[in-house]
Amino acid sequence: MTKPYDLIVVGGGPAGSSAGIVASRMGLSTIILEAKSKGRDKYCGGGLTILSQKTLKDIGASEALESIELYAEGHVVVLPSGKVLVDKLEEGSYGLVRRSVFDQKLQEIAQSYGADIIYNFRVSHVSTETDKVIVKNDKGETIEGKYLIIASGVSDSLPDILGFPPRPGKEYMGHCWGTETSYPVDAELTNWQKVYGFTPIFLLFGFVTYGYLWIFPKKNHLNVGAGTTLKESEKYGKSHLEVFQKGLKLARELGILSQPAPLKVDRGWLVPGKPRALTYSVKRRALLVGDAAGFVHPLTGEGISGALRSGSIAANTIKEALEKEEPGILASYQERWWKDFGEDAYKYGIILTRIMYVHPYLQSFSLDLIYSDEKAIRLLSSLLGRTDTTATKKLYDYIVKHFPELLIKKFTKK
Questions:
Q1: Which residues contact 268 (CB under 8 A, 6 or more apart)?
Q2: How is residue 327 annotated by DSSP?
């Protein structure tokens, strides 16, 4: 058995690494246990919102911004009606990263603050005693610590093994599929600058029943994917590939993509859209963060900001529990993340999601409604760029307050 730690973090993604960074900076002896090898990849869009970039600076991880390969100053949205809407962010830019590089950089920053990391350590068993937790892998190797943060992702069974409430049903789960592959991006960038006046990301609606297809440029790579609810995705079968190619066809027809490089689906993954009912366990001396907790925005599918913020909040909660020698303080974690980003995402975000993703007509209607009004467009852009922790509520409040006016604009604006 190795030396006892103040904190054991299971998982070395953004949530786990941010917890490790914050905990180590506060003087907690910390170890991160990553199930896979160093430099492992995780497929996601790889977009750092404005809130994610700010959070990295706030937690002392500004160096992670060096992994940004490209900045996108706004987005181009293709509506189900065929309208193409170009919008530049006012508050900042999207930072586009490759997850293998970004995640490793965060791990290195955690190490620079004093955290230990062990790779290829897949936790298979956790036991809890009065004042400590002991984790074990399949090889029988053990690590002992006073508290535990679980950052092992949406599909890992560890939260269930420890008795946390199950993750929400299929109606609150998303499924995405796509690729990130080598691509001659420079040729596209020149064209986009000429046509749009800036480098954008692209969101295409109407191909996926309750979601969208995205195109995110990186330095020499292109990330393209589509996502919908898991419940809807199960009906697709081979249509997953057809939807993907249909979206690419429109992108080429619109001049978004001009290069003949082949783009094929080679991976898929699950995305939570609602947190577990409880994300702490005083009995188990454990907290859930990131995808393991369910911290992905239900409307946009963006999860890195929630991962970073939950990791930081969890580390601060455990720091207080250690100082006061009171495990019961872990219960305050639930209130802390809810107040910070939870209410915005999982109260107002879920309300908007139920409207947008309940029927294709309502999705089209809602987007047309928003894009009939300049202020609503600005607020939606703030939500897509996740400029702060209140962006969803601001859009919701504006729609509710001005709904009659928006209706008139929708049906009168050409």
A1: 175, 176, 177, 178, 240
A2: G
Assigned domain for 123 exists: yes
Indicate whether 92 belongs to any domain: no
Task: Find where tokens 């009659």 sit.
Answer: 404
pLDDT of residue 252 exceeding 70, the answer is: yes
The pLDDT of 199-212, averaged and rounded, is: 90
Q: Which amino acid is at 186?
A: D
Residue 144 CA to its chain's centroid (Å): 30
Residue 33 to residues 134, 141, 150, 293, Cα–Cα distance (Å) = 13, 12, 10, 17
Is the separation of the CB atoms in 44 and 99 below 8 Å? yes
| 105, 153, 317, 407 from 31: Cα distances, Å | 16, 17, 17, 54
What separation in angstroms does the CA of 13 have from each of 6, 18, 180?
A: 20, 8, 18
- Type of residue at 407: L
Residues 323 and 237 both lie in one domain: no
Q: What are the pLDDT digits (tens) for 262-308?
A: 899 999 999 999 999 999 999 999 999 999 999 999 999 999 999 99
What is the domain extent for residue 143? 5-69+97-168+274-349
What Cα–Cα distance (Å) separates residue 256 from each residue in 93, 177, 185, 204, 288?
19, 20, 11, 11, 40
Domain final position from 349, 384, 402: 349
pTM of the model: 0.96
Q: For the chain, what is the domain count? A: 3
256, 187: one domain: yes
